[in-house]
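INTERNAL AUDIT FORM
Audit reference: QA-55
Scope: verify that the stored structure record matches its stored sequence.
Auditor: D.O.
Record contents follow.
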Amino acid sequence: MKILFICTHNRCRSILSEAIANQTGNGLLDARSAGSQPVGEVHPLSLRYLLQVGYQTDGLRSQSWDEFEEFAPELVITVCDSAASEPCPVWFGKTLVAHWGLEDPSKVQGTDEDIQAAFVATINIIEARCEQLAHVASLPKDQWPHALKDLGASL
């Protein structure tokens, strides 16, 4: 299953999702991430906490969704509410698009421990979702929409 994770700025939640999906998808998930208005850099805490829990970060970068038409994702997942409400590029037209929102851990304020806990909690949610996505990927493609809805994604 080729997945494109979208978040407006492509610096935190979509980046976390890309890294985790590629490394936990049991070969069933081929993930990329992008933003509708990318800021051009990955949030440093995204990289720190991915590395801390054992994920590779090489090659992760903030980039525009315009760069992925040739990737031809089978599934586009928005992970932030603002990206979910934006008009999608025309080339998404034939692609299954789902929204599976996540709170932004990079916006948590508090102690270092509070911020770390927010990132770890988000990573844990993404890990569970990627496990579920790997199961969905093993199903016939016409069953993906129903399976995603059953898992809580909005289509």
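Auditor finding: record pair retrieved intact. The domain at 2-150 is CATH 3.40.50.2300 (Rossmann fold).
Action required: none
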